[in-house]
Structure formats: C-alpha cells, structure tokens
Amino acid sequence: MNDIQLVSEIHDTITLDRMVQEFTDKIREVADRTTEIHDTITLDRMVQEFTDKIREVADRTIPLKTVNPFRYNELPLQVAELIKERNRLRKHFQRFQRTRDQDTRREANALTTTIRQMILKHTYNERLRNNDTYNERLRNINPYDGSIWKLNRHLRLERRQISVIEDENDTPAFRDQDIAERPAFRDQDIAERIATAFEQYHNTPETTPQTEHLVNNTIHNYFLNKPIDPNTTHDFLTSPAEIKRLIKLSPSLKAPGPDGIQNILLKNLPRKAIVQITYLFNAAIKPGYKIYY
User: How far apart are CA 17 and CA 163, in angstroms?
Assistant: First the structure.
C-alpha cells in the first residue's frame, strides 16, 4: 500500500467518525419523549416524527459518499461525475425502500454500463499513449506471436446487434424502451438486462396476508379479549437494554426497512433515542396496537 492510499484511508476514517459523532449528537438533541401517548393517533404521529427526524439528521450530517480523489484521479472528469451520480441514485434507492422507484434502479444500472464502457475506452487510449510512438508499436509486430491479429481484431470483428429480449407475449421485457433497444454485446450487460426484467415479477412482498392475520389475532387474543393484569403486563414490555441488544445483532449493511432507516444508523443512536424507541414500543403494546408505517 503506497503512502498516498494510506493517507487517504486514514483521512476517510477520521471524517466518517466525525460525521457519525455529529449524527449521534444531533439525535440526542432532537430525541424527546415528553409527549404523553393516550391514543393511537398520537402514537402514529410520534412514530412518524421520530423516523423523519432520524432521516433528516442522517441526510444533513452524513452526506452521500463522494468520489475519492486518490482513487479516481486518473479518470476523466466526466467519468468521475457519472460515478458520483450513479452512487447517489443507488443510495437513494436503498435508503427509501418504502417508496422504491424501479426507474431509479434501472437508471443507475444504465449508468453503470456507460461508466464501464467509458473506463474501458479510457484505459485503451491510455495504453496507446504509454507506448513511445505508434511506429514503434508497428515495428514490434511479427507474424508469430499473434500481435498482428490482436491489433487487427477490432477492425475485423463484425458487431451484430442482438434482438430485443422479449417475454412470452412477444413484447419487450423492459418498461424503458430506450434501454430495451440499446444493444448489449457483453454477457454481463445481457445478464443485467435479464435481471432488470425479472425484478418486475420477483419482488418479495414485505408481508403476507397470512402474517398480518396471525399478528392481528395474536394481539387481539392477548390484549383485547383478556383483562389486562398490571402484574403481568410488564412481561410483554421491552426495555432499552433489549432494544439495544436487538439493534446490535442486526446486520449493519442490510437494506433499510419500510421506515428507510439503515441499521448502521440505529447502531449509532444515543441512549436517549433508544429510550424513546422503547417508550414507543411499549406504548404500542399496552393498547394492543400494531404500528403501520
């Protein structure tokens, strides 16, 4: 590892630590559980306000990752800008899972293909410029090592545009007609086209009617049909320690849930915010109410 790369990684680590600490401090300032919850309307409002505050603070204190200048210093400015835009679209798609827009994902995938093609072209041109002169390159050609064929290959290769991938109804398998008609030559590009088509039909729902029915019946049987005993109610309530333990066990890099909050953000919440989450959970359990986002 060279010195420049080492300095870059140390700088990125320090900057990330500072942003995470700022996120924790800001959440500590906005976390508030002074409002008493007596009905489900107030509970819904407080849950929504709390999740909105976390997302707002995260967007303000932990901005989208920018291009590392040490990593992309040899790429053209246009490619670096496309990489930043692609990363912005990806993070937007992952952060707001509840309102995921498949067009955003397709746009990010299309940018990825464009970036790869531009990098390949840039790399090829750089290799040509690294040679002393084109004449010297020609002088090194001989008919015994395949160098003539390699130099001549891209001129002799006939590009054939593949047909649009279609579904069983003979209609394009892509909603974006421009992407559907754009030729794909490499196996990886074709695989991305197929994946884009399959994602329209194989999106696993976040819940099922059977699960909803089971949850609602369980809550109804425990809290509505039976008298609530103050001596046993605490058996169903949670605690800050339990909430913190469950958050710690959650995978940091997993995609966010319906609230759009990543697990890595939850792991950096201050104790004051953990207490507020506990308060909201217990407020939902006591009346036997299920929160819908």
Answer: 50
Tokens of 77: 């400015």
Listed residues 184, 204, 224: the one ending a domain: 204
Q: Which residues contact 261 (CB under 8 A, 6 or more apart)?
A: 51, 54, 55, 58
pTM attached to this predicted model:
0.46
Distance, CA of 241 to chain centre: 28
Interhelix angle 240-249/271-285, rounded to 10 degrees, is 110
Contacts of 126 (CB under 8 A, 6+ apart): 74
pLDDT above 70 (res 93): yes
List the domain range (segments joined by +) for residue 290. 16-69+207-293
Total domains, the chain: 2
pLDDT, tens digit, for every residue of 165-178?
554 444 454 444 44
Residue 92 resides in a domain: no
Q: Is the pLDDT confidence value at 163 over 60?
A: yes
- Domain finish residue from 204, 222, 241: 204
Ordered DSSP codes for the chain:
--HHHHHHHHHHHHHHHHHHHHHHHHHHHH----S---SHHHHHHHHHHHHHHHHHHHHHHSPPPPPPTTTSTTS-HHHHHHHHHHHHHHHHHHH--TT--HHHHHHHHHHHHHHHHHHHHHHHHHHHHHSS-HHHHHHT--TTTTHHHHHHHHHHPPP-PPPPPB-TTSSBS-S-HHHHHS---SHHHHHHHHHHHHTTT----S--HHHHHHHHHHHIIIIISSPPPTTTGGGT---HHHHHHHHHHS-TTSPP-TT---HHHHTT--HHHHHHHHHHHHHHHTTT-----
